[in-house]
Amino acid sequence: MKLVTFLKDGQESVGVLTADETAVRPLPFPDMNALIEASWEQLLSAVKDADGSLPLSAVALLAPIPRPRQDVICLGINYKAHAEEAERYSSEAFKKERPIPIYFSKRVSEAVAPEGYIESHPGLVQRLDYESELAVIIGKTAKNVKAADAADYIFGYTVLNDVSARLLQTTHKQWYFGKGLDGFTPMGPCITTADEIAFPPALRISSRVNGERRQDSTTDLLITDIGEIIQELSSGMTLLPGTIIATGTPAGVGMGFDPPKFLKPGDVVECTIEGIGTLRNTVR
Length: 284
Fold this sequence. Notes:
CATH topology of the largest domain: Fumarylacetoacetate hydrolase, domain 2
Distance between the termini: 33 Å
Number of strands: 18
CATH class of the largest domain: Alpha Beta
Helix content: 10-25%
Number of domains: 2
Oligomer: single chain
């Protein structure tokens, strides 16, 4: 099933999309975090008993988890071709000496909605970039999870655009500030529950800017796969229900072109993942 958070008459609600994805059926949970924390049986019962539907044209979709409880956990340089283009752009900033994961935290006060705006932050940000990513949503408390059991802890998946200010990122020699500004985490349009996608996910992932294809790859090309990510993270930190893990981006980001193709106000960025949908945002 595909789950969404939406706004109707000023009221934020959660719901499940109808089979044809033209309407949403409201569900009796206060928010998406509460829905994720409920048992699978409770969710199925709520979906079965859902009364009525609202056409998508009558609501505004928000990010599936508009206000994550914790910073988003991100993987850097997790596709081989992206590692190569990043190193070409700045060997000093992106050269990866050892085949171990690069983790960083992305600060999110409020995730940007599908059709929402990416803030360009004039005067602060130069070299604004996009990164289409598969995000994993943890479904139950995960501690010391083995890679072989990781699928049991996944609630679902969504699309995340890891918007990046490349000059801030490389100048500060750390990624927190250049990736954690307001308006830098578009997410959505939905969460596709894990039962709908075979594990490990092998999904087409792509991006377009103003209709031009930029990224085109598959999520089975991760250097560190999802099972390994969950095993390593949970060995030292407790992953709570609703935790979001962005798994990295494939080649084709703006800094990877010669000359680079950075974003500017008015640009429309579309990030698409097979089986989930398209996240569409405009730079302002």
